[in-house]
Amino acid sequence: MSSDRPVLETRDLRVVRGGVEVLDISEFAVHEGEVVCVVGPNGAGKTTLLQALCCLLRPSRGEIVFRGQRIETEYPVLQYRRRVAMVFQEALLFDSTVYNNVASGLKLRGLHGSKVRESVEEQMERFGIAHLRDRSARKLSGGEAQRTSLARAFAIKPEIIFLDEPFASLDQPSRESLMDDLQRILKRTNTAAFFATHDRIEALRLANRIAVMDEGTILQVGTPAEVMNHPANEFVASFVGVETILHGIVIEQNGGSFIANVSTTRVEAVGDANVGEHVLLCVRPENVVLATRRQDEGVSSRNVYQGKVKKVIPMGPYFKVQLDCGFPITSYVTAHSLEGMSIQEGKTLTASFKATAVHVIRNPQSMEQSLDQSINKGH
Prior knowledge:
Elements: E1 6-17, E2 20-31, E3 35-39, H1 46-53, E4 61-66, E5 69-70, H2 77-81, E6 84-87, H3 98-108, H4 114-126, H5 142-155, E7 160-164, H6 172-189, E8 192-197, H7 200-206, E9 209-214, E10 217-222, H8 224-229, H9 234-239, E11 244-253, E12 257-262, E13 265-270, E14 278-283, E15 289-291, E16 303-314, E17 319-324, E18 328-333, H10 335-340, E19 348-353, E20 359-362, H11 372-376
Parallel strand pairs: 3-8, 3-9, 6-7, 7-8
Antiparallel strand pairs: 1-2, 1-4, 4-5, 9-10, 11-12, 11-14, 12-13, 14-20, 15-19, 16-17, 16-19, 17-18
Helix pairs in contact: 3-4, 3-5, 4-5, 5-6
């Protein structure tokens, strides 16, 4: 469990490279025992932020504060680095045995003998690599190498661990297994973690809070449920998997709900909005129900539309179905539903979703609001 006590804070953090500002973070905090996942596309600034927080990259301006003390001016950089650990996408192991790699951080800190042995054996056991203790790092699989890298990081008992896309190069079974183990170990050790990834599924599994980045700045911070279901703007919505994003103009207000005009079609949503106001209407694909015929009677959904299937895309355990209902709507269906409704391109279906399933973004052109409270709010 995280607490209100920040382990690490940033204030007015800026990084400039080649005369171009590549990072601009006003405030950010990681709390005791909290896992913060920073997500965003390639080039969003995730790795730059991580390197700055690790003091591997000196910011052009701003402060990094560790347990209430400003790094450099009040707390030595080297001492800070000895209290944190970092795991990269590539394992970066020494040309030695698994045991020696896991022990390396402890030995660099001047520890020897039984203390090193006990800590190394504990971490090898936790990460399921005890049977590999005498194997050369050169002979490890990708998953085994990353387990060794994580065991080395946890052996020093870091107060915060930084992880930069640690699963990106692993196959799916290795990734799933290692994520399960990492989640369990983070919870057991109550270690604060800062995790950079472009994979929102990883973030959903591991994070207490998610921060969405783009172009060097943080657009939204919140719990996974807040970010996934209540995105702050269109970019965040599209990045976290909102497939149906509709631009509309409010034409009717009903006290607690309203109707917006979208491509000459009416869409009802719950929320406050004024007549004439521009809104974005966001609907997650899992909230869109498909049927083979129009079902106005006996359904609770107020938004019911007919349309033709434009594309059916396999997505592993489910299928993404894209329809043209005068505007685009996307739904997820199981293989059983796909077969039962004989869904294929060109087929006419009914798509429906409840007014309560619509997330409303008001005045989308002026959505740049202060994030100070959400950025610094612990889980």
